[in-house]
Amino acid sequence: MDFRLLEYFLAVCEELHFTKAAVQLGISQPTLSQQIRLLEERVGMPLFQRIGKRNYLTEAGQTLKEHALNIFHELEQAQSEINELKGMQRGRLTIGCSGNHLLTRTLISFHQKQPGISISVVELATEETRAGLLANKLDLGVVFLPLEDEQLVSKELYTEELCLAVAKQHSLAAAEAVKLDQLTEVPLILFPEKFLVRQMVDSYSAQAGVQLQPAFELSTMDSMLQMVRLGVGATILPRSYLLQGSDPSIRTVPIVEPVPQKKVGIVYRKQTFLSTAMLAFINELIRTFTPSGTQSM
């Protein structure tokens, strides 16, 4: 089967829109439609069906998509191994992360050691990172654990805890610690429910016998802190993020009884070829979060 046809097919799978896929590929829409029809003739079944104004994958299309993604993944893995044999010092890593702040120190130190490796970091919810790894769109994830999946390998880095963040003029700013039941009347700015940090807040609140209702739901930590600075309310965020800056307008208050906490770790696909660049980055992460630096791979 022509690899070009599979590339065209995957572009349509991604967009589910022939015109947008054609623009992405740099070809005309009639040409793309003709190529997809040719592919359907070769497999002997329709790959897409149109319902109303939208295109959907057929069962055959879904099957071909899964195998096509694996084919291109294997080709990339082969190229990575060949590059290793050639001693190539250049490459690229794409990383999904539950918070870009987690990688700042590692990115700086790694770039100093491996300036030829370019790195793209995408801030994603944990489940989005899982999907990206399984779809071979990410090389590595740094996420909250556990992330249970038989196709993934995980390695623990450290334990993260959640803290309350309030403006310095807030009534709780001088508190040494707070309990979750003290926050029932406080306007809260929290993540939407798909984010693991929000799920942690809800889970620990349930343990404490309270239900916290956010006044606002925002999807980035920067925007949440901006609302706190403006005195709109309080937020609950990872301690590592709150302590990375020295914003005098924000107070960080520990949460106790119970302390909301969860492991943070590295995840990657079991079938992924661990290139020298990827191994070096993983070891750099371990050195960043392990003071002794003795747990390298």
UniProtKB/TrEMBL annotation:
The keyword Repressor does not apply. The keyword Transcription regulation applies. Residues 1-58 form the HTH lysR-type domain. PROSITE patterns: HTH_LYSR. Keywords: DNA-binding, Transcription, Transcription regulation. Belongs to the LysR transcriptional regulatory family. This is LysR family transcriptional regulator.
